[in-house]
Amino acid sequence: MNQPLSYEVMVTVRADLVAAWEEYVPGHVADVLATGCFQSAVIERAAPGQYRCRYTVESQAVLDRYLAGYATAMRADASRRFPEGVEATRAVWAEWRRLAP
Fold first, then answer.
1. Please, what sign has the CA dihedral across residues 63, 10, 71, 28?
2. Residue 100 lies in a domain
3. Which of 1, 40, 77, 97 has the most CB atoms around it within 10 Å of its CB?
4. Which pLDDT value is given to residue 3?
5. Looking at residue 98, what is its pLDDT?
6. At what angle do helices 18-33 and 71-81 cross, to 10 degrees?
7. E strand or H helix at 47, and its extent?
8. Which of 101, 93, 99 is nearest to 42 (CA)?
């Protein structure tokens, strides 16, 4: 049985671009969700200029479908709008161990 994964995009935004990024990113995440590859998404902010978009995906196979079919266009759109001042890193997380009190 496949276990859901978290696909996380961590983003650092230059101070002068924060307002524009915060206006842009909800629509961008909605476009990613519209691909049908992800079950849900959460946008988190540690501080202005530090963000994490966390997507839940059903399996590695579905994530691979997103990466092969959609990721290049999604990243290119973000890069066109923010050609500098925005740095992103990505990671895939799988639940390793669940603990309860």
1. positive
2. no
3. 77
4. 82
5. 87
6. 160
7. strand 38-47
8. 93
- Is the alpha carbon torsion for 6, 48, 12, 30 positive or negative? positive
* Edge-to-edge strand list for the sheet holding 86-94: 38-47, 50-57, 5-13, 86-94
pLDDT at 73: 96
Please indicate, yes or no, if residue 99 is contained in any of the structural domains: no
Q: What averages of pLDDT result for each successive group of 10 residues across the chain (101 residues)? A: 88 98 97 98 97 97 97 96 97 93 92
Quickly count helices (H) and strands (E) in the chain: 3, 4
**Residue reference for tokens 């995906």:** 57
- pTM across the whole model: 0.92
CA–CA gap between residue 23 and residue 55 (Å, rounded):
19
Show the domain range for 49. 5-94
